[in-house]
Amino acid sequence: MDTMQVNWEALDALVIDFAKSERLFADSSPPSSPLTSSASSSYRWRRLICQIRRSLEFGDIDAAIDLLRVNAPVLLDDRRLLFCLQKQKFIELLRKGTDEDRDSAIRCARKSLAPCALDAYPEAYEEFKHVLLAFIYDKDDEMSPVANEWSAKRRYEIAGLISSVLRAELHAYDPIFSMALRYLISIHKGFCLRQGVSSPISNLTERLLLEERDPPPRIQENLYEAPPFDEVDIQALAHAVELTRQGAVESLKFAKGDLHKAFQNELCRIKLDISELDELVHEYCVYRGIVEYVPVNHVDQLNHGSNTSPNSSFGSENDVSVTSDPVEDSQTKTEPVCNQRSSVEARYLCDAPALNEDCSTSRTCKSKDNKVVVHRNHQTPSGERGKRKRWRGRNDDSEYCRNLKSPPWCTNLSHEVDKHHEIILGVKEFTTKGMAAEVVDEINYLDPEFFDLNPTLLFQLKQAEFYKHIHGGDQASAMKIASSYLGPLAAKDSTLLKPLKETLLALLRPPDEQPQTADDFRFDALAASLQVAVGRRLGIEEPQLMKIVRAALYTHTEWFKLQMCRDGFESLLWINSLKCVGSRFRRPPPSGDGSCSSKSLNDASGQASSSLITLSSCTNNNTRMGADGCSVSRISTVDIGCDENAVLKVMEFLALPRADAIHLLAQYNGNAETVIQQLF
């Protein structure tokens, strides 16, 4: 799983979109476009849902009803939901135990609950008579016939139900990143369980992805007789989010047949530990240089709502808005540059030296654990550092979110570790800009043994330098690099022979046909690899989110190999972009609210519905190049002697996963009727 290549540029975009959608960055710019206004609206709806959920979980039913009446009165027109709320209000009044509240419960039952029970749904009146038993059975009596009604668990069930309905009604879906993470981790856990292998990230996923889900929203009565749905859609939804076939049908009914809306509804029902997720995102953002590191005491002050001055780095909630530019903050002060530096070193900024501090030399030595210790004051280039965001966190939601923890390598952050972090960010930035020769010189200066331990990274840097000379028309310099570096490296490592041959082909192209250097070589992928490798040598481990995404993408690929089909929802959640390391990342159209945009839904609508059926037409080859330049695995069911209709039939009748249905069909010559007869 560690060998899975990930497009970190795409993950950066997803994480930034998530942080902006959730107001985790400090940014005082007002909304400047309809897109950011849409994002603000979606954020307000999610906050509203959070407030209503909290009121219901604390038993304050009146507060929840008031919020619904003002913001979403259409939900109170649904007599089933209103009856559910009034019944819980009746219980909560009795729970208080005073004579006054008991009288209020009687009035509630007479004026609100009983009239609502008459036309809510057929069983409602029986439920009304049953809940009246709460008058005579104590709330602590676990053997009473109304123990379930008294249970505090009912609060959370109702809160989850109302949240599910509100989310779908207001289109207040979670950002794409959090939905993709739910989906990938669910597939990862299912794959590991099925294959009987241990998960290398189980300690992370168990904390992050919670077992319970919100209850499914109840379908409207006028949808009970909905037309039959395509079996392909039913099976695609059922196996994507682990539903029974009937559960998938009910979800499609609630979404009025919209597969992708049903898919988003079901994903958002899966619960994430938000505080854990924020910690992972914060650690990743600090590591990747997206945000500045903030000392823990500053974050604590934020989370407790401490006052800040107008010039503080952190604004209040009212000052925060989402902008389309992920990096526009330029209020970071620059520090003096040490004079006695090489041209490469001068691109870093160093802290102002103390009177007794030697700023004229740079020394490298080894610690006891064989990690490099760098004695110098490097920092990231001032322009790049000035672009970083300031982390705000969920300071307006402190009851739900614990104080943000620092990344493991930032705990008790020493000045030396802080300098090391700035060094690896500088290496990343220079590599991204294509400054391969400067990066090689700088890393050799920092750690002369680094490339002896990482020859592939040296090959890739020299390969990039080779392309740069070819693009500039300097073939002599390119040949010198090939003969001095690329050839000797490939001679020592046979796996580099193939990329060496492909690199040398650039010499044969006419100058007017030479592609752009960036198209020949993906610097962002190399920059991420260098950042991780150099960081480890300096004692800074990669963030845990990187480990989760890498392992989850690997199992996602392996899972759909078992299913012998493509994932019809992967483009909806940017999963295909995360896997496209060999081609330039193309950002999907922004949704404005963090959820999947209507355009992306339309673009993918045919893909998910036909994700199973399209396999029958893929008999010519098992692998093709997708429209985005990514390799797409295609394994045809025709190759094992069965067609797609037979697979769907066995999946439907036997409630089996796709892979199991295919294996059974392979044993019985692809005949679905024979399979069903044998098992029954």
From TrEMBL:
Biased composition (Polar residues): 303-324
Annotated region described as Disordered, given as residue ranges: 302-338
PROSITE patterns named in the record: CTLH
Domain CTLH: 51-101, 420-477
Domain of life where this protein originates: Eukaryota
One Pfam family matching this protein: CTLH
Identification of the protein by name: CTLH domain-containing protein
Species whose genome carries this gene: Genlisea aurea
